[in-house]
Write a structure and sequence with these properties.
Length: 207
């Protein structure tokens, strides 16, 4: 019985190995050249797999980018939530900034890739599994912001959810607009902070 399971285990290990090689190759090439400067054939060659094998894991270059960025986006949200919890007592504005800082840095690590990722999430097929995962992460970020805002007694749950959507829209524009591409992360974060502060001001001193 044990021997009957071994071939399946080997196949699964082989599949996992190929996936990791593809992901590593895509990560290195996207980081070096940007998503527009890389082809799926080049990724397959770097990963030492046939192009048909690559397509078993991601049918397009955009899907590969989403797969990679989802991992980084998830890690950034985790870091941001931890930082926000550590900032308790500093006011809701500073807690929100602590949450979004790693996210902004993640999206701007390679500006072309970050812009393409967000564009694909917004305008791509929401039924595609990798996009579904990315949209779920965006929802998790929004929920995290909502939770922070409700810590302020002047903001009720409904207003907090609306404000969180506004804040995520601010993040999206500030990390994708051509106008901001050549600014530093700190400059972009400072601008985002000013916009969030202005958004929260009417909430009876919520900032």
């Amino acid at each position: 019985m044990g021997r009957g399971h071994m071939p399946i285990g080997r196949r699964e290990r082989a599949k996992q190995d190929k996936r990791e090689r593809i992901m590593t190759a895509a990560r290195e090439l996207f980081a070096a050249h940007g998503v527009s400067g890389v082809t799926t054939q080049r990724i397959a060659h770097r990963a030492d797999v046939a192009i048909g094998t690559l397509y078993l894991y991601a049918s397009t270059k955009a899907e590969l980018l989403i797969m990679l960025q989802n991992e980084e986006f998830a890690a950034a949200i985790d870091s941001g939530l931890a930082a926000a919890n550590a900032a308790v007592g500093q006011g809701v504005l500073e807690q929100v900034i602590a949450l979004i800082r790693p996210v902004v840095e993640c999206l701007r690590e390679h500006t072309e890739n970050g812009r393409t990722y967000l564009h694909e999430l917004v305008f791509g097929d929401p039924a595609e599994p990798y996009r579904q995962a990315g949209l779920a992460l965006a929802g998790r970020l929004e929920d995290g912001i909502t939770g922070l805002l409700t810590r302020n007694e002047c903001i009720d749950a409904a207003d907090a959810a609306t404000l969180a959507r506004v804040i995520t829209a601010i993040i999206h524009i500030s990390t994708t607009a051509t106008l901001y591409l050549h600014r530093s992360d700190e400059a972009v974060l400072a601008d985002i902070r000013d916009q969030i502060h202005a958004t929260l001001m009417p909430q009876h001193g919520a900032a």
